[in-house]
Specification:
The structure holds two protein chains of two kinds. By secondary structure, chain A is an alpha/beta fold. Chain A is 31% helix and 27% strand. Chain A is built from three helices and six strands, in the order H-E-H-E-E-H-E-E-E. In chain A, helix 3 links the parallel strand 3 and strand 4. The radius of gyration of chain A is 16 Å and the shape is globular. Chain A starts with a helix and ends with a strand. By secondary structure, chain B is an alpha/beta fold. Chain B has a four-stranded mixed sheet with strand order 2-1-4-5, covered by helices on one side. Chain B has a two-stranded antiparallel ribbon with strand order 6-7. The longest helix of chain B is centred in the first third of the chain and has 19 residues. Chain B is globular and about 45 Å long. The N and C termini of chain B lie close together (12 Å). Classes of the chains: A alpha/beta, B alpha/beta. Chains A and B meet through helix 2, strand 2, strand 5 and strand 6 of A and strand 3, helix 2 and strand 5 of B.
Chain lengths: 137, 127
C-alpha cells in the first residue's frame, strides 16, 4: 500500500452546527481552522475536506450555558467529526488543536466549542464517489 | 430499518429531490434487500457557502451537484456494502442524472433493531 493510499483512507465528514447569522467570511474561517487542525492532529491530507454547516434559527439550538464548562455564548458551536477509528491520544490532540485554531484564526472562544468524535466507521463504509468503496482506492 | 440523510446544495426542484429519493430507495431494495415501503429519507439543503468540499480528493471532479448520502442501518456484510455503493450510484446516474463523481456515500451499520421505533413507542424488534 502506498502512502497515498493510506492518506486517502483518513476521510472524515465534519458537521458544524451553529446559530444562523454569521458572515460567509466567518464560516470560511471556521472551516479552514477545523481543516488545519485535523491535518495537524488527525493526520488528514490537506485535500481531505468535507464539511457542512448547519445554521439553525436562534430558538433551535438549545444548550446549557455552563454544564461541564462554559460560559457559553451565542457563538456556541457543535463540531461533529465522523471518521474511522482513532486512538485516544489522537482524539485528545485533535480536541486541543481544533479549539486552538478556532480561537486564533476565527476568534471563537474555546468555551464555545463542543466537539464530538464518531470514530466507529471503517473505511469500507465510505465511498468518495463513483460507487466504489474507499477501501478499494 | 434504514434512514437516509441526503445533504446537497439548496436550489433543486422538488422533482429532482423526489427522483433522488426514488433512486436511493430502488438501490436499497436491490442491494440491501429492503422492502420498498421501508422509506425514511431526509434532505438537508444547504446554502452554497455552507457546503464545503474538495473538488478532487480521492475522486472527482466534483461539481455543484455534489451530494452526500448517509445510510443508517443494522449490520451489513462487506459485499452488501459494495453492492449498495454501486446500486445507489448507478440509479442516481439514471435518474435524476447525478454524475457518479458527485455521489459520496457513508454507511453507518452499527444499529440494532432494538434501537429503532417506527412509532407508537414500540421497538422495531417486536414486530
Amino acid at each position: 500500500m502506498s502512502s497515498r493510499d493510506l492518506e486517502i483512507k483518513k476521510m472524515p465528514l465534519v458537521t458544524i452546527t451553529l446559530t444562523k447569522g454569521k458572515s460567509q467570511q466567518y464560516i470560511d474561517q471556521v472551516s479552514a481552522s477545523i481543516n488545519s487542525a485535523l491535518i495537524e492532529s488527525y493526520l488528514l491530507p490537506p485535500g481531505d475536506l468535507f464539511q457542512r454547516f448547519i445554521q439553525l434559527e436562534p430558538g433551535s439550538l438549545i444548550y446549557d450555558r455552563h454544564y461541564g464548562g462554559g460560559p457559553r455564548s451565542d457563538d456556541f458551536m457543535i463540531v461533529e467529526v465522523k471518521s474511522d477509528a482513532r486512538r485516544r491520544d489522537e482524539k485528545n490532540a485533535a480536541f486541543e488543536s481544533i479549539v486552538e485554531h478556532l480561537s486564533k484564526s476565527a476568534g471563537v472562544r474555546p468555551e464555545d466549542v463542543l466537539i464530538i468524535f464518531d470514530a466507529r466507521s471503517t473505511i469500507e463504509d465510505f465511498s468518495l464517489g463513483n460507487g466504489i468503496s474507499a477501501n478499494k482506492l | 430499518m434504514p434512514i437516509a440523510t441526503v445533504t446537497l446544495t439548496k436550489g433543486k426542484t422538488k422533482e429532482y429531490l423526489n427522483q433522488i429519493s426514488d433512486s436511493i430507495r430502488n438501490a436499497v431494495v436491490e442491494a440491501y434487500l429492503w422492502p420498498p415501503d421501508d422509506l425514511f429519507h431526509n434532505f438537508i439543503q444547504l446554502e452554497p457557502g455552507a457546503f464545503i468540499y474538495d473538488r478532487n480528493f480521492g475522486g472527482g471532479p466534483r461539481s455543484d451537484d455534489f451530494i452526500i448520502i448517509e445510510l443508517k442501518s443494522d449490520a451489513r456484510q462487506r459485499h452488501h456494502k459494495d453492492d449498495v455503493f454501486r446500486a445507489i450510484t448507478k440509479q442516481l446516474a439514471i435518474s435524476p442524472g447525478v454524475r457518479p463523481e458527485d455521489v459520496q456515500i457513508i454507511l453507518d451499520t452499527v444499529s440494532n433493531h432494538e434501537d429503532y421505533s417506527f412509532g407508537s413507542g414500540i421497538s422495531a424488534n417486536k414486530y
